[in-house]
């Protein structure tokens, strides 16, 4: 009866061993993070040194609208000629304007007129830098003027824009740069300066920043800013790739949202002209369309990170669904680029941005008040919200609804630097949390291993003890049969013999269950299958009923009553291929339960053929099983409480019986449960010759 024993703690050992490589991987990622943070500090120091002036001479350019006032006329049809607009600009009602020129998203063209004095040049040319890069068409007309002269020189025209192929200007640089020579003298007259007319039109926001640089200061500043942005975008690439690797490794929505923060870096790379500069042949077209796409996509990534940082999906699912709908709307707005209503799409996005930003900010403070975030989560959430507010102001300014101070762009750049460090902070926080979880899983795996080993040794001990009990129990049973064969006429002595017999049979059954449980707990249950008669199995299993004073039993085969032991042992008995010892244990356990959990009455056993299987059903007349305990009766070491205090057991009977039935390709189920009794039913495959 003793089956093969095996260690039950293999799964725990496997889980513990799998956890340690993951912990080592966390340590490796943490070392990478330390290197990246060191690089970030290095970049910060280099950036500060790059932006530090190297000369005591002022190196700032003369700026349009701040140092040089301008006149402006709108051309709604965008089809006016230079002469027509010169006449309009000469109207005394057109006044000089100051400040940054910004008109939002419009299909109109704008004509600006400025006068640059000759004193601004000296003997050196001025470099006219044209920003930003997303302007479609910028035409610059200029001619020298002479003080007191009735006529001026001939007009010269230059054209710039992000959709024009070829050189971007007179200098190979990220922005369009035009060299403007000193104004020539007209005869004997001293030059007075230049009259410059600028036509601006764009499918993106109409925003013009002109700077008149002295050549030496421009080259110095260009070298500084290019060096700084090289390190800056290098750090952005490293942090974005790191966030991507961590997202793939940990499969976390928070880290995927962190990865999406690379979109603002790409947007700024387009605004700063890096695509067209690095890819002169076709980069200008990529930069043109990518700027439009990223400007719309910027909304999604701006709100996604704070939404994941405060776990909005779990805490406020309705607000999270609002965010998903708005993101879907943003994706639909991308079709505005080829369809030609990009300006309207940006305005729609600005309205949606306003509503959802207010909702998200209110939701953030509500959740913070309700759930009291930990300090780390609070800091991680506040950073994106600051970026969200600044980005929202920038969207409104580009749409022309608010003035556009250039300081907003600079603050946005510095906020991106802070968000870069925030990305690393979130990554470090996520690594520490994941590392803690892995350590906890490893500890749990070790504890589970110890628990399984203890359970294994417990079952091994029970199996060993049960095996050792069988010899003395066999001696007791044999001795009892010898005493009965003597034929004493004393009724009291006969009743004592019956009680000894019931106790012995009970111990044998408990011993069989312990041995069967030990075999079931092994790696695989080995069945000693042979052609087996079912009636002798049932005859042996009903021994507990025969020893009971309050119970009786009967067997029905295909609804026909089988009355005698001779009939039970008939040669025409139904046969199956099974392990007879284990099958006897299985049937005995169910019949034993029927006796224990019913105070008396009939135990009815039905044997019936059903298609390619035999069914053995055992019906008692007990009080039934409470509905809340039905789900656990087949679990190991789980028992149903009984009003009879004498009922005892370990909760192994039904568990062992079901496992034995399943090992034979059958099943044991509770098919009827009522206050009038329970009916359990075995389903066992037929003998191959009978199927």
Major sheet characteristics: 6 strands, mixed
Number of strands: 18
By oligomeric state, this entry counts as single chain
Average pLDDT over all residues: 77
Taking the alpha carbons of the first and last residues, their distance comes to: 29 Å
Q: In DSSP terms, counting alpha (H) and pi (I) runs of 4 or more, how many helices? A: 19
Low-confidence runs (pLDDT<50, min 5 residues)? 1-20, 50-58
Structural class: alpha+beta
What's the gist of this structure?
This protein has 691 residues and is α+β, with helices and mostly antiparallel strands. The chain is built from 19 helices and 18 strands.
Task: Describe, in plain words, how this protein is organized in 3D.
The chain has 691 residues and is α+β, with helices and mostly antiparallel strands. It is 53% helix and 17% strand. The chain has 19 helices and 18 strands. The chain has helices at 10-51, 82-89, 215-250, 253-259, 262-271, 274-278, 283-309, 312-315, 317-333, 336-339, 342-371, 375-398, 406-486, 491-520, 534-541, 543-546, 565-568, 580-596, 653-663, and strands at residues 62-63, 71-75, 101-105, 109-117, 126-131, 137-146, 156-160, 176-180, 191-201, 205-214, 530-533, 551-557, 560-562, 575-578, 601-610, 613-619, 667-674, 677-685. The strands form 4 sheets. Strands 13-12-15-16-18-17 form a 6-stranded mixed beta sheet, with helices on one face. Strands 1, 3, 5, 8 and 10 form a 5-stranded antiparallel beta sheet that branches. The chain has a 5-stranded antiparallel beta sheet with strand order 2-4-9-6-7, with helices on one face. α3 packs parallel to α13 (406-486). It is rod-shaped. Residues 1-20 and 50-58 have low confidence and may be disordered.
